[in-house]
Give the backbone structure.
Amino acid sequence: MPKTSTEDRAWIDEAIRRVDADANRSADTHLHALPLPVDGIELYLKDESVHPTGSLKHRLARSLFLYALCNGWVGPTTTIIEASSGSTAVSEAYFARLVGLPFVAVMPASTSTEKIALIEFYGGKIHLVDDAGQVYDEARRLESGCDGHYMDQFTYAERATDWRGNNNIAESIFDQMQAELYPIPAWIVVGAGTGGTSATIGRFVRYRRFPTRVAVADPENSAFYGGWESDRSDVTTCVPSRIEGIGRMRVEPSFVGGVIDEMLHVPDAASIAAMRWVSNILGRAVGGSTGTNVWASLKIIERMRQAGESGSVVTLLCDGGERYLGTYYNDRWLAENGLDIAPYARKLEEFAGTGDFTD
């Protein structure tokens, strides 16, 4: 973007005011206590589905817009471009409309039709690619072909959010936990899509000197687990993740492995079984990444139980299940994708009755 003019600076000021005003109109997200048949251990779900755009990515999109505006990368004629599997694009389309800018989402062709419809509802345009690994280069190509700015969530997620506080998700969790039986979580469990959430929470707990440990739950076909385990950033996979919103074919630049205490690999069928299990408990549908988070949380809780430890575990309800009615909630889709959730569903039912989650 060329040197900022007086007129452009005035537009940027107004755009920032609109984004801040939108945040002021939004209440904090809820923290739900999920009943467990385990004495001395509590599990909480931070419900990010209640954001205006229905997912955890609303926080990221707001931060990315503020970061780009304050850096002078976005002006009154800029086309916003993002590479996204869905939820980030939904939220960025919302903020682009809020400040009056066009938005284009570069997405894998496998993205759920429900997410595509939401992006279009907010005025965004869809640019589909057959190979999920092509989204980055295609977004850059589109950026160079117009007066555009590629938001690049996978690079800027970890630096666009102020991890010291300023109402980030970590500060919100600890504020809401203050009156609970175990106010300082023993563990916080999250998935990784960009790596921005795990980086923010991991840095925050270290900065505030909390003993809380941070675990990342990673689905099948994701490079994050292998990259973290081998301490390499060049790990890649050949097949995209089936759990939308988390898991990537490469270790993204925003993934900060040094602030993560543990990673857990979660089978996709286990994620979907846990998603349905939580949905039945809450009485409303949640998304697949929530199932990934919950399955990993229960593995950690089982370890705590066996060690005779007490405390709290906090994880994220990332988005609502209405975005996945044609996939994760569709038994025919599961069969077509070779996903047998029955063994994992039985394990969850046994846990509900006995409190035992051993393998």
About this structure: The longest helix spans residues 6-24. The chain has two domains: 22-55+169-354, 57-157. The two ends are 55 Å apart (CA to CA).
